[in-house]
Amino acid sequence: MLTTFRDLFRYNIEFRIGIVLVAIVTVFAGLSWFSPYPPEMIYVVVPDQPPSAEYWFGTNSRGQDLFWNLTFAFRNTLGFGLLVALLSRIISITVGMTAGYLGGWTDRALMFVNDIFVALPIFPILILFYFVLRNDLDMVTLAIIMACLGWPFDARLIRSVALGLRHREFTRQAIFAGMNPARIMFQEHLPFVMPIVFSTAMANMIWSIGFEVTLGVLGFTNLNIPTIGTTLYWANNHSALVVGTWWWIIIPVVLIVIAFLGLFLLAVSMNEHIDPRSRLRRMGTGV
Amino acid sequence: MRGYFLFAAKRFLQLAVVVFAGTSAAFLVAHFSPISPVETIIGRVSGQSSFSPTAVESLRATLTELFGYDQPLWQQYLNFWGRFIQGDLGPSLIAFPTPAMELVMRALPWTVGLLTVAIVISWILGNLLGGLAGYFQDNRILKSIGVVAIGIQPIPYYIIAFLLVILFGYVWPVMPISGGFAMSVRPAWSVDFVLSVLWHSLLPAFSLVVAGIGTWFFGMRALVSNIVTEDYVTYADLAGVDRRTVVGGYVMRNALVPQLTALAMALGGIFSGTIITEQVFNYPGLGSLLIRAVNGGDSGLVLAVSCVAVIAVASAIFIIDLLHPLLDPRVRVG
Amino acid sequence: MSDPILTVEGLKAYYRVGQFGKNLDIRAVDDVTMQIERGEIYGIAGESSSGKTSLIKVLAAAIRPPLQVIDGSVRYDFGGRIIDPTKASKAELAEIRWKHLSYIMQGSMSVLNPVRRIEQTFRDFAQRPLGLSGAAFRARVEEHLDHLKLPTSVLRSYPHELSGGMRQRVTIGLATVCRPEFMIADEPTTALDVVVQKEVLSLLRTVQQEMGASIIFVTHDMSVHANMTDRIGIVYAGRLVEEGPTRTLFTQPKHPYTAHLVASLPMIGDTRPRPALEGRPPSLADPPKGCRFHPRCPMATEICSREVPPLESVGDRHRSACWHADEVRPLVEPAFDKAAGGVRA
Amino acid sequence: MKGFTAWGLAFGVATLTTAATAQDEATAPPITEFPRNETLIIQNPEPPATNPPNFNLWVAGNGAALSNGNQQLVADTLWFIDPDAGLDGAIYNQLADEGWQYNDDFTEMTASLREGIYWSDGEEFTAEDVVYTVETQMATPGMTWSAAFNENVESVEAVDDYTVRFTLKEPNSRFHALFSVRWNGAWIMPEHIFSEVDDVTAFQFNPPVGLGPYTLHSFDPNGSWYAWQKREDWDRTAMAQWGEPGPEYIIYRSIPNIDNRLIEMSNGNLDLIHDLTPEGTFSIIEDRDSVRGWFEGFPYAHPDPTLPMIIFNTQNAPFDDRRVRWALALMLDARAMSMASYRGAATLSAISVPPTGTHPDDYHMPMQDWLIDYELDLGNGETIQPYDPNIGMQIADMVRPQFGDEVPTDEAAIQRAFGYGWWRQDIDAATTLLEQAGFTKDGNTWMTPEGEPFEFTINTFSEGVINRLGTIIAQQWSQQGIEVTPLADPQIFGTTLPLGDFDVATAWSVETWGGDPDLSFFLDSWHSDFVVEPGERQPSRNWQRWENEELDRIIEEIRVTEFTDPRNLELGQEFVRLMVEEMPVIPVMSYNVFSVYDTAYWEGWPTAEENPYANIVNNWANSKYIFTQLTPTGAE
């Protein structure tokens, strides 16, 4: 895994750009720990100030310094994305590897369940949860719900990799050596699955953050927590784009685009690493 | 043919299970709503004037019985299914006592129409461009389309839709930014009406296309760049098979199979986008209805919209699955 | 050597890979000169990644980056029509493909488009070169398949509905339906089981004899060579190291590498230990100086590591590139009997 | 090319599907143009109607739109009481040709009806319609005014075609209020239509038959717009006394997205917007010269006679303790609340009467001295004078750098616009009061007498200025060591307030006529007779569930005092003083609605300064008087 990263970093320009972009937003989110203002406070600075030396990102109509407010928003949003990715990885690895390794009846049953989850329209279900939970729908709860809905795509991919590993020589040796299936799966197979786990994790983050933004924009999350979604909600609530406080929309959008682009490039370059055919092709076109 | 029936039967079973699981989940989640439909209705009915406590009490009793809230949960669940099978999901609360299903059915065609148009366009266009970009990897125009797509892809959908409103409604006000058709026409089988519907759906559909096309573009490009290395493509090239035949019949045609599967898998997600579209463009449809239901505390209607969404998406997937063997002969036997 | 259909002179084709500022040449085909006669089956043998696939890519005019022709020429003579696939325009190439020059590819599983019926594939491949309209074309194809003793019902099938052997026979039908003068067969039987392999080979041979076409037959399987080819060229690390009539090469190899290849053929009843070839084929990106075989050659001397041995005549139509060609002896008792036609397994 | 063909094909198919399903509403002629100089376009604040073809506004909660023109242009009833000055006084005789007549003990009310009024289908309006309206609703539970009529009316009779007499169950000097429109009122039903119907509650009433000068022209089957056309016989309606309405067509459009409202008005597709954000208002007034609000300059918005406030659930501890309520009030900074909610465009009120309509003259100005001198006993022997009469001036100074000349400088004007004053933030006094109530401070955290941290949730609106108000209030209390979380609650009026499912909320339980000092409109329902046990449904509007003997005395006296009696004002002021003393709710400001109108196509609109004849907040049925005053500018 580490050498994979090293190789990617060395030889893959997309991966490098992706790392840099993700690093930018991560550092930005990290700045929230140095914020002079608590995130939920309003009317602490003069509202509606455009970006300036004093307020780098300007101030919004709620009297918040957008720079510091967005650091919190990114911390919460990225943290949320990571948590969803982490939790859904656990489910997708378990399901994917079990189905791929055990095969047969187990595989069919798991993939049947998998297909059900794929077919569920997630958004109405999320809204239903919001409808029921209201303010109790904090970021962690939302993350758990999203994780429970966001694993099937990736489980299928992991399964296909695991399916290939089952027929490999070392698997047979391990079976002869008397290793139990769980150990084979997690000791022998997991390292091979990791690249695709990583790549799907990036894609999953884009997915979950996208939903967070959508829910937030509609006001269907806890509006007291600063996130990218709620930032846009408040901006919209104050007609930001129409009344000319454009920085309130443009800056978070630029930042989220940076984050998404970074994650996207990481996922793509990782995918390429997994599929050597497209890598060869890339070498070819590099002439 | 028998193989196909077996295949279709299996898919149908899957459809049934999805609908069952999805609606059951929706029922259970909605059931735990702290907002009591009974109290919501009483609030709405009594909101406009003062109600005597006795009148409220008798109304409450009637409604409790109507909703069956005096029964145990499993009984309510069975009742739910009993009514559900007959296409009845109880009364809506924000338009009491109009059946929730009636409201949903009124909104459904708009959503389905808009989504179908948007999905078909973005799928075809995205796959076409992506396929060409994957095949002609050195083409400048296709390369720059790829760069633009990478730039647009991460923009949250809401922003794309809203920018279109600002751009075509404000800066350069040439497009309608709200409604399903113009106030000057009436719904009828007339050229004017159809054109008006088209004209009004253009901007919302375009926003969905812009947002959706990237996925197909990238997916197809990646698929094609792999498929061109397949033996049958090389072989056809060696045989001097016509370029267009190779691109169309060999490369794209084979890439379409996984892209069709991807379409089925993406439908649930695409449905989410339309909720925002309808919000931003004030377009009629399920999304607007859902938002109104949530804000109105109408658990019956929220449940109905969720169930219909589950059914609609699952059915769409089912239909796509049925198309699958037509595109991929290998599925037919299995 | 009166009427060669193909003449290759001093051909060099490299994979030129440029990455991160470095230019790296993989010398897949390095200074190859050869001629192929009309009606002849010419075998090309060699280990995997010896460059034989690259060589036939050039011959089949399937040169795609990063493969580039650096030097030399290739010259086809199709009944007076002279064409060099490395220099010809796309239109010119399209003219000769399938009509004069066809191809049977490795891997029968994947050379047919899985979503097209066989008939459609025939149409794609052969309708233009044959210049026939729908019904006439269909009749021609059916006639051809009949001739090959293939059921015409395969035309309505999809590739996945056919067995591996049937698929490869269909491919042969596909490659021969236009009655080309030259065919390139790249490992056509590798993935097939032995019985099917035999049937496919005999089919190919029959068609070839009827049409009088020339075939370049590439395989790493020496027993197939023994059965199929008239002449063999041995390729090692991008170079042609020995060339001669099949029987001669098997009985009197004049290159130590050839001797090893021949010796590696298993023979029934022969339980003697085989002298194994040590080491691995060299990297084509950085081949050894001098004779490229010398690091593995038991007979290597000082000159071998210094100078490249020229490909020189060592007998009737027999050429070898070895400083010690005279000293090479077969490593096992020659047991070649082409007439018997048996494949030793 | 293949792609394009397929694209076109798919597009066509999908559209036809849509069209086909929408077709079932097909009735009217295919194309109607609405000439811009004959058409008035108004934003309806309701979301697109849930039940578009339903016009039956006597059945509550049936999903019919109300403020889509139905109640402004079609429905009518006996009297209107305007929140503003009115065309000729705030009280209009509408279907009645004179004021309400009670007998001496207020057990009978007689209404004399206007003659020569016709329904839009040509039927004459008579006393039978009024009698039918009352009797039908009394006999049919679940209709909007069923309960109100049942509680009050013993019997109703048509004395003759143009006279109706109500016999009341109990003396009530305010019975006429049911037929007096403030926002809405008990609309008269067309007897000749409804008597033909089996189930009046299920009846859709499409097309509606009304007494107003407009009839339904067409509507969107998706409920997002309704177009109305002037009746040819508009002069046979009660509105005719104010002249011919200007617009031939009036269209009400639902535009939920605020930005779209701004865009549509900028593009000339909207003449009157019901409500905007403060920022949106500032922006459109700056961008489009022909657009203005109720006030020409800052604060632009129309103050509705509604009083946003902090409501305590006085049945829950510790909010049953007057000292705690006062302490919480003294922790607040009125300037911050005004700035955060309305960007300074708020009209503050320290007393429980909205600072709007005629109320400042009746209450705020006369009571100013009493408020300045008011002494609050902190319980430890100290007293303070908490009222600050200068807060309005301070806010005016705060917004002047941004708005310059738009901000008035004259003291009286500032008091009208920004309010007469509010409570001074006094943390020390608040601390004393809380300590007197048994609270202790642990570090920066207030602990309840039980030793728990003092924390609670404040329910507020899910968006708009009241949401902002709730947020800033929570923040100010949190800064003082009470952990308060704002909760955006879309169900606040639907369930939260009626069921008492809250500790503290920002909403309102005070709504007045605006144009009359009488407070009975809301106050009658505050009588302790109506207060229910915790968990039960409280009838409108005593959401604070507060009981007080003095309050009951005031209410009971109002019930037997004639509407126009000056004694009402004295009783109102007594109520105000009681509320200041007890603080069961903390009044904050009037509900200022950012209605703006465009004078590009129509002129003659009401203004705050010269001609405040009607409320421009157009979901009020009272806004109908505007249409008679409008004339086209000639622009197209």
UniProtKB/TrEMBL annotation, chain A:
Example of a GO biological process term: transmembrane transport
Identification of the protein by name: Peptide/nickel transport system permease protein
Bilayer topology: Multi-pass membrane protein
Residue stretches making up the ABC transmembrane type-1 domain: 78-267
Highest taxon of source: Bacteria
Residues spanning the membrane: 15-34, 78-102, 109-133, 189-210, 246-268
Native organism: Wenxinia saemankumensis
Family: Belongs to the binding-protein-dependent transport system permease family.
TrEMBL record, chain B:
Topology relative to the membrane: Multi-pass membrane protein
Gene3D superfamilies: MetI-like (1.10.3720.10)
InterPro entries, alphabetized: MetI-like (IPR000515), MetI-like_sf (IPR035906)
Protein keywords: Membrane, Transmembrane, Transmembrane helix, Transport
Main subcellular localisation: membrane
Subcellular location(s) of the protein: Cell membrane
ABC transmembrane type-1 domain: residues covered: 108-320
CDD domains: TM_PBP2 (cd06261)
GO biological-process terms attached to the record: transmembrane transport
PROSITE patterns assigned to the protein according to its UniProt record, in alphabetical order: ABC_TM1
Transmembrane parts of this sequence: 12-32, 110-136, 157-177, 197-218, 260-281, 301-323
Family the entry assigns: Belongs to the binding-protein-dependent transport system permease family.
PANTHER family the UniProt entry points to: OLIGOPEPTIDE TRANSPORT SYSTEM PERMEASE PROTEIN
Protein name (database record): Peptide/nickel transport system permease protein
Species the sequence originates in: Wenxinia saemankumensis
TrEMBL record, chain C:
Main subcellular localisation: membrane
Gene3D superfamilies: P-loop containing nucleotide triphosphate hydrolases
Protein's cellular compartments: Cell inner membrane
GO molecular function: ATP binding; ATP hydrolysis activity
GO cellular component, one term: plasma membrane
Residue stretches making up the ABC transporter domain: 6-262
GO BP terms in the entry: peptide transport
Membrane topology: Peripheral membrane protein
Species per Swiss-Prot/TrEMBL record: Wenxinia saemankumensis
Classification via CDD domains: ABC_NikE_OppD_transporters (cd03257)
Pfam name, any one: oligo_HPY
Keywords on record: ATP-binding, Nucleotide-binding, Transport
Name listed for the protein in its UniProt record: Peptide/nickel transport system ATP-binding protein
SUPFAM superfamilies, alphabetized: P-loop containing nucleoside triphosphate hydrolases
From TrEMBL, chain D:
Database matches in CDD domains: PBP2_TmCBP_oligosaccharides_like (cd08509)
Domain of life: Bacteria
One matching Pfam family: SBP_bac_5
GO CC aspect terms: ATP-binding cassette (ABC) transporter complex; outer membrane-bounded periplasmic space
Keywords carried by this UniProt record: Signal
Descriptive protein name: Peptide/nickel transport system substrate-binding protein
Keyword Ligase among record annotations: no
InterPro entries in UniProt: Peptide/Ni-bd, SBP_5, SBP_5_dom
GO MF, one example: peptide transmembrane transporter activity
Source organism of the structure: Wenxinia saemankumensis
Cell location: Periplasm
PANTHER family for the chain: OLIGOPEPTIDE ABC TRANSPORTER, PERIPLASMIC OLIGOPEPTIDE-BINDING PROTEIN (PTHR30290:SF16), PERIPLASMIC BINDING COMPONENT OF ABC TRANSPORTER (PTHR30290)
Protein family membership: Belongs to the bacterial solute-binding protein 5 family.
Key word Ribosomal protein present: no
Classification of source organism: Bacteria, Pseudomonadati, Pseudomonadota, Alphaproteobacteria, Rhodobacterales
Residues covered by the Solute-binding protein family domain: 91-526
Matching Gene3D superfamilies: Dipeptide-binding Protein, Domain 3, Periplasmic binding protein-like II
Stretch forming the signal peptide: 1-22
GO biological process: peptide transport
